[in-house]
Automatic annotation (TrEMBL):
InterPro entries: NAD(P)-bd_dom_sf (IPR036291), SDR_fam (IPR002347), SDR_subfam_1 (IPR023985)
UniProt protein name: 3-ketoacyl-ACP reductase
Organism: Mycobacterium fragae
GO molecular function: oxidoreductase activity
Record family assignment: Belongs to the short-chain dehydrogenases/reductases (SDR) family.
Alphabetical keyword list: NAD, Oxidoreductase
Pfam families reported in the protein's UniProt record: adh_short_C2 (PF13561)
Domain of life the protein comes from: Bacteria
């Protein structure tokens, strides 16, 4: 049997990148998947969002494992859309055991800047809360909630001398920080019910968000039109290990563990999958 055999997972941001990887990994280990994604661009975000065909491909990959997939185009900023999508999945599968609140955007250099701030906050923070809270009435003892934070949320950026020091970029950092606090408090409230809630903090991850022009410009502000080749050597500043980034599968393995009964007593955790990035900021006593 798989490590999440017979369970049902609700995954946001599932059309590509980390979200697709998490959905497929959980399916490989026995879970049926309710997969949602916005599947259209956001004007202030300087890279393309996933398309409907991407979400269809996620469904194909899930079904290839032998598990069921219910997909829906839904914007995490709108709780009603998420509730409709979740209800469709529940009608098919009957129960819900795992929530993976993965959907997120990076608004570095987004225009207009204050709208970029709003779009990032509404997606990363409000969207995470929406995904979790539409699921809460359906969760039972043994369920697991997993939210995607970022090692950026753990960094001291008081000098704002970091990649993305503009409203859209700073919103990314603070949205991840605030969602981490939300999940921490929620975990305290859910613990007596036997429901767990944790946050995973990835470092740079090899997805379309990282491999995008706004991110290249954030890491190489000294160049007018930086390329991937220009930016990749600088990506390594985020990690202590000698890598520019990690792969989505590295995060998916942590998601699987937190979703499984192997982590049945793990809750309120801020789990870093960061190639040692945190070590560059703090000592072990913090």
């Amino acid at each position: 049997m798989g490590r999440v055999e017979g369970k049902v997972a609700f995954v946001t941001g599932a059309a590509r990148g980390q979200g697709r990887s998490h959905a497929v990994r959980l399916a490989e280990e026995g879970a049926d998947i309710i997969a949602v994604d916005v599947c259209h661009d956001i004007d202030t975000i300087g890279y393309a969002m996933a398309a409907p065909d991407d979400l269809d491909e996620t469904a194909r990959l899930i079904e290839k494992t032998g598990r069921g997939a219910v997909i829906a185009q839904a914007d995490v900023r709108e709780s009603a859309q998420l509730r409709t999508a979740l209800d469709s999945g529940l009608a098919e599968f009957g129960t819900l055991d795992i929530v993976v609140a993965q959907a997120g955007v990076a608004g570095m250099r987004g225009q207009p800047p204050l709208q970029a701030w709003c779009d990032v906050m509404n997606t990363n923070l409000v969207g995470t809360i929406n995904a979790i809270q539409v699921a809460l009435p359906h969760l039972r003892e043994g369920s697991s909630i997993i939210a995607t934070g970022s090692t950026a949320a753990l960094m001291d950026v008081s000098q704002k001398d970091n990649p993305g020091a503009d409203p859209g970029g700073i919103a990314y950092l603070y949205s991840k920080r605030l969602l981490s606090e939300y999940v921490h408090v929620l975990a305290t409230e859910l613990a007596p019910l036997g429901i767990r809630a944790n946050v995973i903090h990835p470092t740079n991850t090899n997805t379309p968000m990282l491999q995008s022009e706004p991110m290249y410009r954030s890491f190489r502000p000294d160049l007018e039109n930086p390329t991937r080749a220009d930016a990749e050597p600088v990506f390594g500043v985020q990690q202590a290990m000698k890598v520019p980034y990690i792969e989505p599968e590295d995060i998916s393995n942590a998601v699987l563990w937190l979703a499984s009964d192997e982590a049945r007593y793990v809750t309120g955790m801020q789990l870093r999958v960061d190639a040692g990035g945190y070590l560059k900021w703090y000592d072990y006593r913090k």
